[in-house]
Design goal:
With 403 residues, this protein is mostly helical. It folds into two domains: 17-147, Tyrosine recombinase, N-terminal domain (DNA polymerase, domain 1); 157-368, Orthogonal Bundle (hpI Integrase, Chain A). The protein is built from 13 helices and five strands. A three-stranded antiparallel β-sheet has the order 1-2-3. β1 (204-205) and β2 form a beta hairpin. It is globular. The model is unreliable at 1-20, 24-40 and 48-53 (pLDDT under 50).
């Protein structure tokens, strides 16, 4: 058993103050070290905030309240990380002033700063807006009436990056080791990257040819297809996982994290084979709350780096990522004649309009609109007029009367 984290001194802060990412004009200021009486310079062009300058300790306490409110509502960890980050940056922008004295003016000023100075995308600005609305409504218990009619940033309509079947095969073939299986499952089952990495052994059903996605986007479960071509490679991979797990259990290790409170309900489940990750990480870590040595699944950033390298080695000009394989799955399913409702269920889309974006891709190309230039407007290259050469002009000879 590994010992837990060392005991803290009663007066020691739980999180260093520099984690709150202070703005540049506070890093060398006495205000950041706890004094609120000193005047600190502000960058040119920014108006002086109406709220008084507080310290980072009060901001940290507010951030913890935000974290508790998010967990009480069972939001996802990614939502918690995103909202807490935006609250921290909002407080740092206003010099860690008292949030109870802020209002719609400060929120609007920060959103304007994101759009004009930081030049963030519309989706990023809307995410920050949602985080600040959560802060004031759910944590501070205030309804910002002046922001009720504030329009959200208009998101541009973008078409997804779709790979052809040959491009998808080339991208997957350049993925090393077990990452080849990760890319094959994403393309063959239409999984998101996090959904694929979060698969557990019990979620793979070879008899029914299905994969069960647990706690997907929107905290929803769904089933998707398990490709027949991946049955043997996946069975061999799971056999290696079983051998490694049995050896770790014999050494007193082999525990994984369980969702919610299942660890208290089923104390031995964290060592069972069915709860093991299909794609475990190479290293173990110590759970600070329990001191137990655990193993997590592969980190998404490591897989994304491998995809970038594979796209370069495959010579793809498109910005091919792991999500491009998911887009390609939906597009190729529609091109194969599958019903759009079926594709919606396999993709896990809540609204049909989200799946409809792939119909705009399939209406152009091999099964859709053809260019009028393809209807024998130009002569074939074998009959002359090669690309890059001008066809000699057919001029009639001069006659005597033309002189």
């Amino acid at each position: 058993m590994v010992n837990g984290p060392p005991a803290r001194h009663p007066g020691e802060a739980r999180v260093p103050l520099d984690v709150l990412t202070p703005p540049w004009w506070l890093r060398k200021s006495k205000a950041f070290r706890g004094s609120t009486s000193v005047r600190t310079p502000r960058p040119p062009g920014r108006a002086a905030p109406e709220t008084h300058r507080g310290d980072a300790a009060a901001a940290h306490a507010l951030v913890e309240r935000v974290r508790e409110a998010i967990r009480a509502r069972h939001y996802s960890r990614r939502t918690e990380k995103s909202y807490v980050g935006w609250v921290r940056r909002f407080l740092a922008f206003h010099a860690y002033g008292d949030a109870t004295r802020m209002g719609a003016t400060e929120v609007r000023a920060y959103l304007t700063h994101l759009a004009t100075r930081r030049r963030v995308s519309a989706s990023t600005q809307n995410q920050a807006f949602s985080a600040l609305l959560f802060l004031f409504r759910q944590v501070l218990g205030r309804d910002l009436e002046a922001l009720e009619d504030t329009p959200r940033a208009k998101r541009p309509t973008r078409l997804p990056v779709v790979l052809s079947r040959a491009e998808a095969a080339a991208l997957i073939s350049h993925l090393p080791g077990r990452l080849w299986l990760v890319g094959s499952l994403i393309y063959g089952a239409g999984l998101r990257l996090q959904e694929c990495l979060s698969l557990r052994v019990k979620d793979v059903d070879f008899d029914r040819r299905v994969l069960t996605v647990r706690d997907g986007k929107g905290r929803k479960d769904r089933e998707t297809v398990l490709p027949d071509a991946l049955e043997e490679p996946l069975r061999g991979h799971l056999r290696r996982i079983r051998k490694t797990h049995e050896k770790e259990v014999a050494d007193g290790r082999g525990a994984v994290t369980l969702p919610d409170a299942l660890e208290r309900k089923y104390p031995r489940a964290q060592w069972e084979l069915g709860w093991q990750w299909v794609f475990p990480a190479g290293r173990e870590y110590v759970d600070r709350s329990t001191g137990v040595l655990r193993r997590h699944h592969l980190h998404p950033s490591a897989v994304q780096r491998a995809f970038r390298t594979a796209a370069e080695e495959a010579g793809l000009a498109k910005r091919a990522t792991s999500h491009s394989l998911r887009h390609s799955f939906a597009t190729h399913m529609l091109e194969a004649g599958y019903d759009i409702r079926t594709v919606q269920e396999l993709m896990g889309h809540r609204e049909l309009n989200t799946t409809m974006i792939y119909t705009h891709v399939t209406t152009v190309g091999s099964k859709g609109v053809r260019s009028p230039l393809d209807h024998r407007v130009l002569p074939p290259l074998s009959q002359g007029n090669p690309i890059g050469q001008n066809k000699p002009s057919q001029r009639r000879p001069l006659r005597q009367e033309d002189d």
